[in-house]
Design a protein that fits this description.
The complex is a heterodimer.
Chain A: H1 3-18, H2 28-77, E1 83-95, E2 100-103, E3 109-110, E4 116-129, E5 133-137, E6 142-147, E7 157-163, E8 166-170, E9 180-183, E10 187-191, E11 196-200, E12 206-211, E13 216-220, E14 233-236, E15 240-245, E16 254-255, H3 258-264, E17 276-278, H4 286-291, E18 296-298, H5 305-322, H6 326-342, H7 349-362, H8 366-379, H9 386-399, H10 404-417, H11 423-433
Parallel strand pairs in A: 7-9
Antiparallel strand pairs in A: 1-2, 1-3, 1-4, 4-5, 4-6, 5-8, 6-7, 8-11, 9-10, 10-13, 11-12, 12-15, 13-14, 15-16, 17-18
Helix pairs in contact in A: 5-6, 6-7, 7-8, 8-9, 9-10, 9-11, 10-11
Chain B: H1 8-23, H2 28-36, H3 40-62, H4 65-81, H5 92-110, E1 122-123, E2 126-130, H6 131-134, H7 148-160, H8 164-175, H9 180-187, H10 191-212
Antiparallel strand pairs in B: 1-2
Helix pairs in contact in B: 1-3, 2-3, 3-4, 3-5, 4-5, 5-9, 8-9, 8-10, 9-10
Classes of the chains: A alpha+beta, B mainly alpha.
């Protein structure tokens, strides 16, 4: 028999012997154990389901966080373009991308880098950028956007004023810490303080700059060398003006005339300024300015009762200053006092009382003037204008009432109570005059 | 079926499964589909249908009934956990055999059984006995071994003492009745290899039977 057939036979024999195996029954305990464990698997599935929900929540939180970060990054780094608004008269914008001039009719037209804005006739337009700055391009003026920063990245905001007049209101952002520059053919005007307002009038080869609030750096711009030498820069304080002639250093700042101040009042109507304000500078001579009667600004759109009454009294004061008698002055002052008593307002009272004290001094009512200033020190000792009142008391004792001892005491109080105020210099000068 | 109840409702569950097994016919694929959705009753029916075959297979493979029972439970629990991976290619029973074979190998490995078996070595199914003890006494006549069942038990014990590479194919092909191709699929090897091993295993078993005249 061959080995092949032998294998076949063996195979059949073995298969026959091994086939039909006997069945085995699983014990009941084991079955119980199996089913019990099967139920535990259900529990495991439920246990697994909780982490799944947790994973889902974690995923959701992750996606939300990612979206938040994306939105934040987008807001931080996207370029925010300024836009034109409040269009009056004929205004054109030069689109640098399309190289064409277009008439502006829609509000909120966005400006891009190298775009130009031009006003014709009595046209006027505002350029607004977030809450950071607000420019008003007056009639027959032209301005170009030189540099616009992207989010937190980017340098200072820069405009080139080719001709005409621009009012600027700027509020330095705590986040971005940027500066606003207005470059004219003669000068570069940039903010270094907090709020500032500036008018540039680059006509007839010169640039005129007047500052109503804050500090502004004015630098001569050398067209040939395209640089701004340090020695050709001046700082212009509030209430002062300067002029830059082509190729020359800026003139030393000097106090603005009353008419110029009134012209700059328009700045109070743009941006977010108070509706009533004493037009006073921030310099060390501000007490003297006050006592020589400074104008009080009342916004034209201020509609509350105080504003209406103040506007009326201001007109009476203006008339009294020109032609009125002392009695008229005193009558107006009493009306002013009546407003302060009737409508107490911490926001405005100090300014009103300062003005009332100055008017009393103007009509040689020294005692009443001092009484008014002392009321400021008593009622508003923490006011940032309290040092003016203290210094004014010294000046009145010295110059009106001729009481050197009390004047000396008042000046010493300025130095001791308000050592960081600008009135310290005035007080020291007063003490020197009194022989100390 | 009340899920999550372990005590009183447990026996009712088993009874419920049995009733269903008797009264209603479900195909394997249908039961598997329901089990994939978490239907314990359906899986219970699969368990009731196949557990005896698997238990027998594991007992013959491992040689210890207690261990075989434990392994059967493990196999079915493992099947339930991984039933979503079952792709319905081939018979469900073949998939069960594959898992059972792996489980049996693991059990043997865990018990540190010897791979090679000599005639004097302790038998795998009972460490206290040698293979010679299992064999019937030469003096006793074949007629003395009356019950075929008992004789078969001896065959299976001899097969159980084989090396696993012969034991696999013998149990699957000659005991469980799988074809060479199906056994190859279960064991994950070439059908020709299965044929060769099967032939050798049969020869070894035949020689043993001849030697001991059984």
């Amino acid at each position: 028999m061959s080995s092949f057939w032998e294998r076949i036979l063996i195979g059949r024999r073995i298969k026959k012997k091994l086939s039909d195996p006997p069945g085995y029954k699983m014990s009941k305990e084991k079955k119980r154990e199996f089913y019990a464990q099967l139920f535990d698997i259900k529990a495991e599935v439920e246990m697994r389901a909780i982490p799944k929900r947790r994973v889902f929540m974690k995923g959701l939180a992750g996606v939300t966080l990612s979206l938040f970060i994306l939105v934040l990054m987008y807001n931080l780094f996207r370029p925010n373009y300024p836009y034109v608004s409040r269009i009056r008269g004929m205004v054109k914008v030069f689109r640098s991308a399309r190289n064409e001039w277009v008439f502006v009719q829609d509000d909120k037209l966005r400006l891009h880098r190298d775009d130009m804005v031009k006003t014709f006739g009595d046209g006027q337009v505002d350029v607004i950028y977030r809450d950071e700055y607000h420019l008003r391009l007056k009639n027959n003026s032209e301005m170009k956007l030189v540099n616009v920063p992207s989010g937190v990245i980017g340098s200072d905001i820069k405009y080139s004023v080719n001709r005409g007049k621009v009012f600027a209101y700027y509020k330095r952002s705590q986040l971005y810490k940027r500066s606003l520059s207005l470059v004219t053919p003669q000068a570069d005007v940039s903010v270094i303080g907090t709020d500032f307002m500036v008018e540039t009038s680059p006509n007839f080869g010169s640039t005129w700059v007047g500052v109503l609030n804050g500090v502004v750096k004015v630098s001569a711009f050398d067209l040939k060398q395209a640089v701004m030498p340090k020695e050709m820069s001046v700082l212009v304080d509030a209430g002062k003006k300067t002029r830059v002639l082509s190729g020359r250093a800026p003139l030393q700042p000097e106090r603005m005339l009353e008419d110029e101040l009134f012209e700059l009042e328009e700045l109070y109507r743009i941006g977010t300024k108070p509706q009533i304000a004493l037009l006073i500078s921030t310099g060390e001579t501000r007490t003297r300015e006050l006592l020589s009667i400074v104008p009080l600004f009342v916004a034209a759109d201020a509609k509350h009762k105080i504003a209406r009454e103040i506007r009326k009294i201001s007109e009476q004061f203006r008339y009294a200053l020109k032609e009125g008698t002392k009695e008229q002055f005193l009558f107006n002052i009493r009306q002013f006092e009546h407003i302060v008593d009737r409508y107490p307002s911490p926001k405005y009272d100090v300014q009103f009382l300062l003005l009332i004290g100055a008017y009393y001094k103007y009509v040689n009512e020294g005692e009443k003037s001092i009484e008014t200033f002392k009321r400021i020190l008593r009622d508003y000792p923490r006011s940032r204008l309290a040092s003016i009142a203290q210094c004014a008391i010294g000046i009145i004792y010295e110059e009106v009432l001729d009481d050197p001892a009390k004047a000396r005491s008042a000046y010493e109080d300025v130095i001791s109570k308000y050592p960081l105020s600008v009135e310290v210099e005035e007080a020291k000068a007063g003490l020197e005059r009194l022989g100390l | 079926m009340v899920l999550g109840c372990k005590s009183d409702s447990f026996s009712q569950d088993i009874i419920g499964v049995r009733i269903l097994k008797k009264d209603i016919f479900f195909s394997d694929n249908e039961l598997i589909a329901r089990s994939k959705k978490g239907d314990k009753q359906a899986f219970g029916m699969l368990f009731e249908k196949y557990h005896e075959r698997i238990l027998g297979y594991l007992y013959r493979y491992i040689g210890d009934f207690q261990l075989a029972e434990d392994s059967t439970v493990k196999v079915f629990l493992s099947v339930y956990r991984n039933i979503s991976n079952y792709t319905e290619q081939g018979l469900f029973l073949h998939w069960l055999y594959r898992i059972s074979t792996n489980e049996a190998k693991n059990q043997l490995k865990a018990n540190s059984r010897k791979k090679e078996v000599s005639i004097d070595a302790p038998a795998k199914f009972d460490a206290r006995k040698t293979l010679a003890d299992i064999m019937p006494d030469e003096r006793s006549r074949p007629d003395d071994i009356v019950a075929t069942k008992e004789l078969k038990e001896i065959y299976y014990k001899i097969v159980g003492s084989f090396d696993k590479k012969y034991k696999d194919v013998l149990l699957l092909c000659d005991v469980e009745g799988l074809s060479n191709v199906d056994a190859a699929k279960v064991l994950g090897m070439n059908p020709l290899t299965v044929g060769t091993r099967l032939s050798r295993a049969r020869k070894i078993l035949h020689d043993i039977m001849k030697k001991y005249k059984i």
